[in-house]
Amino acid sequence: MEKVQHITRSAIRRASNIEVPPQAKQNTQDLFVNFCLILICLLLIYIILLLM
């Protein structure tokens, strides 16, 4: 159990040291926003079809 905790801690430490470029962060946010917009559009189409 102690070893697992040590491995987990070192993995978290390594992951937090990785620098994320601002461009990558921006791309991820754009992707997320696009995904949400597509979901909302699909939901609206579904509701309109249900109401017909």
Q: Indicate the low-confidence ranges by residue numbers.
A: none
Main pleated-sheet profile? none
Mean pLDDT: 90
- Counting helices, strands and paired strands, the structural category is mainly alpha
| N- to C-terminal distance | 59 Å
Number of strands: 0
Tally of individual helices: 2
- The radius of gyration is 20 Å
Tertiary shape: elongated
- What helical percentage do the residues reach? over 70%
Strand content: under 5%
How are helices and strands ordered from N to C? HH
Family: Belongs to the phospholamban family.
GO biological process, one term: negative regulation of calcium ion import into sarcoplasmic reticulum
Subunit structure: Homopentamer.
Keywords: Acetylation, Endoplasmic reticulum, Membrane, Mitochondrion, Phosphoprotein, Sarcoplasmic reticulum, Transmembrane, Transmembrane helix
Question: Could you explain how this protein is built, in words?
Answer:
The protein has two helices and no strands. It has a domain of 32 residues. 88% of the residues lie in helices and 0% in strands. The longest helix has 30 residues. It is an all-alpha fold.
Quick summary:
The protein is mainly alpha-helical.
Structure keywords:
52 residues; mainly alpha; 88% helix; elongated
What is the fold's blueprint, element by element?
Layout: H1 2-17, H2 22-51
